[in-house]
Amino acid sequence: MKKLYLVLAAVLLATGLSFAQVNVGGHAAVNFSSLYGDAAEDAPWGLGFAAGVAAKVPVNPMISVVPEVDIDLRRQSDDDVTWSTWALEIPIMARIGVMPQLYLEVGPQLAFLLSSEVEREFGAHTTTTDLGDLKVLNTFEFDIAAGAGYTVMPNLDVNFRFVIGFTSIVDGKKYIGSDDPAKNIQLQLGGTYWFM
Predict the structure, then answer these.
(1) How many domains, the chain?
(2) Which of 36, 54, 137, 140 could pair with 27 in a Cys bridge, judged by C-beta atoms 3.0 to 4.6 Å apart?
(3) Which residues contact 80 (CB under 8 A, 6 or more apart)?
């Protein structure tokens, strides 16, 4: 029993020391997003943005775990159709320092789709379809994100990410009568300011 207490004390001490080094910051990014999959052939690209908070937890001098919580607006638009989606995203990135200021990052991204609507223009008329009201919006999405970043100064990182979705945004069976997917794909340029 004494060994169990010693092990537990060592774990708590190590956890406390690691949390003493945690950085917290604000994250913002612009994204260029589209959809891919059989239900999204020739889908247009569009500009959106993301903003939220991040934490940086060092594992060792070269590796950190960087979870974020972001609100993300994705837009795809062409002359006739604009598709806008709001999502709560939780990327959990493994950051690997390859040079003193340069790092690579990769990790899963969980997304909870909050709302999505399609706006179509027919001449002078515009119609808006809320995919949530139609009960065809999938509420959960799984993505993989990968990228590279640079520490511009001790409290500021800039990064570029590529995000690719593995689950469909809509229930194709209900929306278009087939199982064809429409999945998220994004290019993202962002920055994190570490204020703690």
Answers:
(1) 1
(2) 54
(3) 120, 121, 122
With respect to residue 87, please indicate whether it lies within any of the assigned structural domains.
yes
Identity of residue 33: S
Cα→Cα distances 159→36, 103, 149, Å: 24, 9, 4
* Domain assignment of residue 17, yes or no: no
Q: Is residue 68 part of a domain?
A: yes
Domain that holds residue 94: 24-194
We report the CATH number of the domain holding residue 34 as: 2.40.160.20
**Within a domain: 6:** no
Residue by residue, DSSP assigns 125-190 as EEEEEETTTTT-B-SEEEEEEEEEEEEEETTEEEEEEEEEEEEESB-HHHHTSS----EEEEEEEE
pLDDT tens, N- to C-terminus, the chain (196 residues): 555 445 544 544 454 445 558 999 999 999 999 988 876 677 889 999 999 999 999 999 999 999 999 999 999 888 788 889 999 999 999 999 999 899 999 999 999 999 988 888 776 777 888 877 777 788 899 999 999 999 999 899 999 999 999 998 877 666 556 667 788 999 999 999 999 8
Q: In whole angstroms, give the CA distance from residue 196 to residue 190.
A: 19
